[in-house]
Amino acid sequence: MSDLLEVNDSRTGKHYTIPIADGAIRASQLQQLQGSADDHGLLSYDPAFMNTASCRSAITFIDGDKGILRYRGYPIEQLAERASFLEVAWLLRHGELPTQSQYDGFVHEITYHTYVHENIKKFLEGFRYDAHPMSMLCSAVAALSSFYPESKAIFDPVQRNISIIRLLAKVPTIAAFIYRHIKGLPFVYPDNELSYGENFLSMVARMSEPKYRSNPVFTRAIEVLFILHADHEQNCSTSAVRGVGSSHVDPYSAIAAGIAALYGPLHGGANEAVLRMIEEIGDKSRVPAFIEGVKKGSGRLMGFGHRVYKSYDPRAKIVKQLAYDVFQSVGVDRDLEIALELERIALQDDYFVSRKLYPNVDFYTGLIYRAMKFPTSFFTVLFAIARTSGWLAQWEEMLLDKEQKIARPRQIYVGPGERPYTSTLKKRIVTPASALSSGTPTSSAALAAATG
Ligand code: ACO
């Protein structure tokens, strides 16, 4: 026998039986609970989607209380230690690890689509030198849509596949070009002989050397950070990609929406905010005073807290270790000491303990990126490169899900009831009545009259 929710509606005295499946009821079942014959049925009110499942997904599993994160069933710890980023990107999309020939073919395809149209370069050159890299990335990825109009055929598997390959391949190139633009350096073209991560570092850092070789600790750090950031189920940016994609727009536009969402300081912008916070603290000795200020409401401890994790974010553990590795290579810096002190004090403080606020993935990533000499404003771009793989897997899953339709939440209207329009403003406007009385009822004449 299936699980059932028995509901008595005290407004009408009626009784309803609502099926429970996978620990959820269908919100649409509530529509049958009508207070009167002419109402539209009961709504569930859930601002910020605190308790609403918007889809069924087989991609990423999180148990926030236990600190578990798995991609397609594989624990994040094992993937971070042993997988490559492109292997994870394949896994997220296809549900299984690739065979050797699938992997080789995939790596080949990604490698050979890394170049971008030269006009993208010109497009990026149009930005001011101090433009925020996330604004540039968001616009450039949206602009890619205009280069590939055939990508609109989202239900054609061939088009969908090539769009996914192009996005995975070209986002790092665009990101690196953005880096070079803000630094005032010439763009470096992709090197097809390098791995995904090393090619990205080459496009970022290569100067006059004939063959770029990155610090292996940095290559490893980029690979691991990309894996950790690859997907995180229905977070703000992924929901944005799914929501925008549900209108059946092309994937470049949908991914641009995800980039816009990721830009926010409560989401991907947090790693940037952590570094700015550490810079503001300035010295380990000022950490206790800073924590007291946070507790009094003067701001948040950035990089702490998570909507889903109510214990240590499993990614933060891996990143902390990675930070040690990187700092061993480049030398310990004052900011790492401040971060460690912030974590030490916060994890003992009742304010943070009682609210289950633990370091999230972004607490240490910024420190690593800084040690690798990335500018603070560029951190979220690195996150976006990795998350593109998850966004694309989620976007495709949404498109192929027969239950999905255009995303369109309901609202509870709390504004005024009907009232007559009584404005006395002086303004240029043509009302239907004045257009008709002028004797020239064409729209062009009305427009001419309006614009004088
Ligand atoms: N510092 C201090 N207090 C905090 C913090 C924090 N970082 N995070 C939450 N709190 C407090 C809130 O003030 C609130 O306290 P109250 O109950 O006394 O009012 C309580 O903890 C619950 O906070 P909410 O805002 O309701 O939690 P929510 O789940 O909505 O927010 C979020 C999650 C946005 C991540 C929040 O913890 C935060 O702002 N963290 C800092 C920003 C950050 O690091 N974001 C990165 C998230 S990871 C990612 O996107 C990749």
- How would a textbook summarize the main sheet? 3 strands, antiparallel
Q: Name the CATH class of the largest domain.
A: Mainly Alpha
Number of domains: 2
Q: The CATH topology of the largest domain, please?
A: Citrate Synthase, domain 1
Summing up helix and strand content along with how strands pair, one would put the structural category as: mainly alpha
Q: Roughly how many Å is the radius of gyration?
A: 26 Å
How confident is the prediction overall: mean pLDDT? 93
What is the 3D form? globular
Count the DSSP helices. 19
Distinct small molecules bound, one entry per kind = acetyl coenzyme *A
Strand arrangement across the biggest beta sheet:
3-4-5
- Amino-to-carboxy terminus distance: 73 Å
Query: What is the CATH architecture term of the largest domain?
Result: Orthogonal Bundle
At the fourth CATH level, what is the homologous superfamily of the largest domain? Answer: Citrate Synthase, domain 1
Strand tally is 5
Residue fraction in strands = 5-15%
- Which percent bin holds the helix content? 40-55%
Low-confidence stretches: 448-452
Order of helices and strands: EEEEEHHHHHHHHHHHHHHHHHHH
